[in-house]
Specification:
The structure holds 2 protein chains of 2 kinds. Chain A contains 5 helices and 5 strands. Chain A is α/β, with parallel strands linked by helices. In chain A, helix 1 crosses helix 5 and helix 2 runs parallel beside helix 3. The longest helix of chain A is centred in the C-terminal third of the chain and has 18 residues. By secondary structure, chain B is α+β, with helices and mostly antiparallel strands. Chain B is built from 14 helices and 17 strands. In chain B, the strands form 4 sheets. A 5-stranded antiparallel beta sheet of chain B has the order 2-1-5-4-3, sandwiched between helices. In chain B, strands 7-6-10-9-8 form a 5-stranded antiparallel beta sheet, with helices on both faces. In chain B, strands 12-14-15-17-16 form a 5-stranded mixed beta sheet. In chain B, a hairpin with a 5-residue loop joins strand 3 and strand 4. Chain B is rod-shaped, with a radius of gyration of 57 Å. The chains are: A alpha/beta, B alpha+beta. Chains A and B meet through helix 1 and helix 5 of A and helix 10 and helix 11 of B.
């Protein structure tokens, strides 16, 4: 089976480093592509702009998307992903450091699959990332994978 | 002389129709000869002069009225000489001395030869009429005095609306001659901007014969325009005939200016309130954006601090001495502490600026859920808790939840060293006022420092004894105050603490529950 790619959209280089480390420690070995703003993320997904001639799988298995991004914001990226038929069903996990209710509700309203806070306490954070990685990459049956008999994903322990 | 008597007797005996006519004519008339002897006389004459009938014809008037004044004798003499003398109204004293008014005519009559044969006298007592006339004049004079001295401008108009009279007060106000005010001349003094409406209203009122009330500006003698309140009313004759209008006007300039000023101030106040509200809303929005930015931007570096310290320990920990590990742990704690600080500040700021909803809130239910949650998170502790059922208040559900969570979490925290913690949430009667109360049997605090309790960042315990930030109670107090309530605390060190607060009650009935002690609302 082709190990799916994870698209991480994160503008903060420190957060990026910590997330990558957490994924490593959780033994999520999939390749991770990093986009550093909303526009880059969209260009990657739709093979436009600087990614017009990229190789690799058409779509990642999951997108981990920070809400606060320069150029094009996270919620806008989410909207565009949901609006486009080719990416319509792509699993998206929203990350944010804010605990503003409107961010959470807004994300769900726009169709994110999951919403995770980035806590300051690193242990929690790392665990959350690890679990995320394992769930979406290993356990979840994505819409684009080969259809299996059982299609309901089982959550990781 | 016997022949005179014979003639008189003959005349008297001849019942001519003329004699009958003269006798009964309803006027005082008499016919005399040149000696002023009565030839014919009417009854009314006799009544008027107080003369009895039988002795009249042939008798001289002077004989019957010996006190006839010289004036009359002279008039009779003149008339006998050929002059017609008359008077439309003659004032004299009657027999009793009262004033009498007479209208009379004395004229000579001529016989066939053209010679004066005597006099014809006509006399009418017009005393009644004259008195009425004088009374009317006196009455009119009284009215004039009244209208001229009453401190109100008055006017009267003809049925066509033109003024026929203005009182002295009106004239003094305008300073123009009376002739200028009559007809429609008065309208020349009305302010040009008000004139058309004023004249139109006045004419309409006259035409419809109804009351007109209006305000307009009228030029005063000194040139200044004054605001006038004008009232005009129709007047009718006793037969219901429309005679025109009558009215009065009052200078209301002061009152009008005050009213205008009041309106201007009200508008100004309105404008200022709107401006201030906009400012506040703007400030609120800014605060909100600020809080959002804080929440996001301040946490990122903390994440880095905490995360990389931990990563160091996890990835390279075996290369460190213990002390190095401790240093890194301190870095992590610092970051964690700051994160909680930010959280606390955000809650405090949200509580301060957030919109306060006012709904019935079931405090008992909130307290129960919170305590169950707190106890579940610390399964190793022995906690006996109690919540009085049916406690409600009117306020913002989210904020009141924060209040209870803070107070109950504090109770849990400060009873951590007790073998069995006891926590209670209920009500008490305090000076006749119902208040809510969170009691615990924990560490308590020194009442001497009680005023620091609710200030942010002021702590009454050392951080190593009881970790915490000191923002919670400040938030709780802010919420309680925003609801219009009070909060106060009392404690005995090592025995326990009580936090009491008041909140607006839910109006009318509370949810059906057992009767509360001391609750009689």
């Amino acid at each position: 089976m082709n190990p799916g790619t994870i698209l991480l959209v994160e503008d903060n280089p420190q957060d990026e480093m910590l997330i990558m480390r957490a994924l490593r420690r959780a033994k999520v070995g999939n390749p991770v592509e990093v986009a550093r703003d909303g526009q880059q993320a969209l260009d990657y997904l739709f093979k436009a702009g600087e990614f017009a001639s990229r190789s690799g799988p058409d779509l990642p298995t999951v997108v981990v998307l920070d809400i606060n991004l320069p150029r094009v914001g996270g919620l806008q990226v989410l909207e565009r992903i949901r609006a486009n038929p080719s990416t319509h069903l792509l699993p998206v996990v929203m990350l944010t450091s804010s605990d503003e209710q409107r961010d959470r509700i807004g994300s769900y309203e726009k169709g994110c699959n999951s919403f995770v806070r980035k806590p300051v306490e690193f242990g929690e954070f790392a665990e959350a990332i690890g679990r995320l990685g394992m769930y979406w990459v290993a356990t979840n049956e994505s819409p684009t994978s080969t259809p299996q008999a059982a299609s309901t994903p089982t959550p990781d322990a | 002389m016997p022949w005179i008597g014979a003639v008189a007797a003959a005349v008297e005996r001849r019942e001519t129709s003329l004699a009958l006519f003269v006798e009964h004519v309803p006027a005082a008339v008499a016919m005399f000869d040149t000696y002023m002897r009565y030839l014919l006389v009417s009854r009314r004459w006799l009544t008027q002069f107080g003369i009895e009938r039988e002795h009249v014809i042939g008798r001289s008037h002077y004989e019957l009225q010996p006190s006839t004044p010289a004036r009359w004798r002279e008039i009779y003499a003149r008339a006998l000489a050929g002059e017609i003398v008359d008077s439309e109204e003659d004032q004299l004293q009657d027999a009793q001395g009262a004033t009498q008014w007479l209208r009379w005519e004395v004229r000579p009559w001529r016989n066939g030869n053209g010679q004066v044969g005597g006099l014809l006298v006509f006399c009418e007592d017009i005393t009644g009429r004259k008195r009425a006339e004088l009374e009317l004049r006196a009455s009119a004079e009284r009215l004039r005095v009244l209208t001229d001295t009453a401190p109100v401008m008055m006017w009267m108009s003809a049925p066509d609306g033109g003024f026929v009279h203005v009182n002295q007060v009106w004239l003094d106000f305008g300073g123009r001659p009376r002739s200028a005010e009559l007809g429609m001349g008065w309208a020349d003094s009305v302010h040009p901007d008000d004139r058309d409406a004023c004249v139109a209203n006045h004419s309409a009122g006259v035409a419809a014969q109804r009351v007109v009330v209006m305000d307009y500006r009228l030029r005063r003698a000194d040139g200044q325009y004054r605001w006038i309140s004008h009232t005009g009313m129709p007047r009718f004759s006793p037969h219901g005939e429309f005679l025109g209008c009558i009215g009065s006007s009052v200078d209301i300039t002061e009152r009008k200016l005050a009213a205008d000023e009041k309106q201007r101030l009200a508008d100004e106040l309105d404008r200022r309130v709107r401006e201030r509200t906009q400012e506040l809303e703007g400030a609120n929005h800014e605060l909100e954006a600020f809080a959002y930015a804080v929440s996001h931007d301040l946490r990122a570096p903390l994440r880095a601090m905490h995360g990389f310290s931990r990563a160091l320990v996890e990835d390279y920990g075996e290369r460190f001495q213990d002390e190095a590990g401790q240093y890194l742990e301190q870095i992590q704690k610092g970051a964690q502490h700051m994160s909680e600080l930010i959280d606390g500040l955000l809650v405090l700021s949200r509580v301060t600026r957030g919109e306060l909803r006012r709904e019935p809130v079931d405090l008992s239910e909130y307290a129960r859920e919170i305590l169950e949650d707190l106890v579940r998170k610390e399964p190793d502790r022995k906690v006996a808790w109690e919540v009085e059922p049916g406690l409600t208040a009117r306020g913002d559900p989210r904020m009141l939840e924060v209040v209870l969570r803070n107070l109950l979490a504090n109770a849990m925290k400060y009873t951590a060293r007790k073998a069995e913690a006891r926590i209670r949430f209920g009500t008490e009667l305090n000076d006749g006022e119902r208040c809510f109360c969170v009691n615990d049997n924990g560490a308590g605090f020194d009442m001497a420092h009680a005023e620091k309790l609710f200030q942010p960042f002021q702590r009454l315990h050392r951080a190593d004894e009881f970790p915490g930030l000191g923002v919670g109670l400040a938030t709780v107090q802010r919420i309680v105050h925003r609801h219009g309530g009070r909060i106060w605390a009392s404690a005995t060190p090592r025995e326990g603490a009580s936090f009491r607060f008041t909140l607006p009650a839910v109006e009318r009935e509370r949810p059906p529950s057992e009767a509360q002690p001391g609750d009689d609302k």
